[in-house]
Fold these 2 entries.
Entry 1:
Amino acid sequence: MTATTELKSRAHQLVEAARELFVAGVMSHSGHANLSVRLDAERFLLTPGFVRDLQPDQLATVSLDGRVLAGELRSVSVEIITMHSVVYRARPHVGAIIHTHSPAATAFAVAHRPLPCRTEPMLRFGQAEEVPVVPWGPRGSDVSVRGIAEVLERRPTTSAVLLANHGLLVFGPDAAATGQLVVAIEESAEAELAAAAIGGAVDFPEGALESVRTSIARVAS
Ligand SMILES: [Zn+2]
């Protein structure tokens, strides 16, 4: 595939993943989200500041050090470049990142409560551990970015973090898989909240998460 075809294909995958988030019903009322896909070691495609009715040619190409190389970003989106680049830097195998304010996951973020892994979809889509909370910092600030970097270092196998008082940040090998994990996490958060009314969610049997983590590590290596 030529570089241009490759770029077009990734742009298309990103737009499709954004559309799926709306179809799956995991978006907040505002429809706020930002998505990115990695192009290479130095560049990624980023949504321009909106995701509703997004078209592939509206994506911006940005560098990991924060420069807009092609396309345009709304000024609010410039702040979120670092939220994405810190993940790409920390995780060389990550190919796509999605940030949403999915309501149930955001409830955990607002309550500063890690989201436990207690549902089959979370296991299946690659989050065989709780989703940790990153302490709050203003969006795109050094405090916020450093917080994300620290949690990623402390939790080398997590594929998602909750941003305290803010929302959800999920990352994976490509846009489709990352979108599926966003949906699985939102479903899990909804199930946790619903189960709380009838006695509370219960952990998987002892050893279940470890065995899935081991098989994920085997596939990834
Ligand atoms: Zn946000």
Note: The chain is about 45% helix and 15% strand.
Entry 2:
Amino acid sequence: MPDSHIHHLQCVLCGTSYDPAKVAYTCPACGPLGVLEVHYDYEQVERHISRAQLKEERDPTIWRYRVLLPISYSHENRPPLADGGTPLYAVERLRKYLGMSDLWLKDDTRNPSASLKDRASIIAVVRAEGKTVACASTGNAASSLAVQAAAVGLPCYIFVPHNAPRAKIVQLLMCGATVFAVDGSYDDAFDLCIEACNTFGWYNRNTGYNPYLVEGKKTVGLEIAEQLGWHVPESVLVPTGDGCIISGVYRGFEDLYLLGMIEHIPRMIAVQAEGSPAIVRALKGDGIVRPCEAHTIADGISVGLPRNGAMAVRHIGASRGFGITVSDAEILAAEKELAMRTGVFAEPSGAACYAGLLRLLDNGTIARNERVVLLVTGSGLKSIDAVVEAAGSVVPIAKGAEGMAIVEKVVQSAVSSSEEVREPKTSLRGGGLRRWLRGVFKSRR
Ligand SMILES: [Zn+2]
């Protein structure tokens, strides 16, 4: 398959350049952590893309940017599912609550498998050219690959850690994937998957290993820029585990900047869980990503050894960005508050960026008039086990008149808890819903 617009692949560790026709995955000299970055021939690309051309383009999916994707020009078969083209919401209620004037929420739960990972899986499925596909994943990448493989009819093998969330495993079984639940961590599943791909000649969709996946994920950055009329935000907050998504977002803006289509590249802010902080540690230290223990309820960003760490650190630095960590308690509270004030039910890792925003507003790092985008990467419906307790409780009532009496009481006490404004540095736990629920239970006694 001639990738005529890809100029070369370059190792993030040693800087060696490779011909894409000769190297499929990572740098032969550096091994699995020598992730390769795709470089395009921008002189060739710029003949095929412009603001004016995109204005005329009717396809809302990622294929509107196909000239910037690692897919050959001659590839005609467009996969059947609609990936990308997800909404960028102005979140008016949340703006009012936070006192922010230019906050946006990119809702990537609206992809076919309900996560941003579809943007990468679709590239893998196209590039597999009929081969069996495989990946190791904590959940979303796997379910996304299973969904995309089912749509085009490719056999699919998945390696998950045995504790991956139930809903995500069910989704990939339903799509007909063969699932190996590895009695070990994500990293163990990753190693096994690479070995199986080498043994059986499968196409490997592992994040932070296959260089073309970041290129699919970058479409989220391309969309944000276009949806904001090319006036890109000052900051984008990105939930960060292995570092692939944040590199993808950066790459999207970088492409547009190199093509002269935007004025600057936004500041990339990596939000990690306190229990899985490898990239933040590297950013605050010497820039080298080292493995650490990973324990967090946010399974999508629970990564001991970020496979794309070196590239992510470089991209975050190039954007003048930084990283912060948030606790599991903050993530859970953020998930609920985000859902209550926007209607977008994020999974814990997706909500982490909102928890990060609250911290950065409180310490003054983000100004309330800044143009800021929160990237919600996956749906909360896939990780309900993690949030069952934080969700709150139902109000049990009897049937008939006795039940109706309680309904009336609840409705009366709800009237007082309408719109409110968040005071800086207050705990999320003091939120209106909690007060309201307390009122409900008091009135029932
Ligand atoms: Zn290398």
Note: The first helix runs from residue 42 to 45.
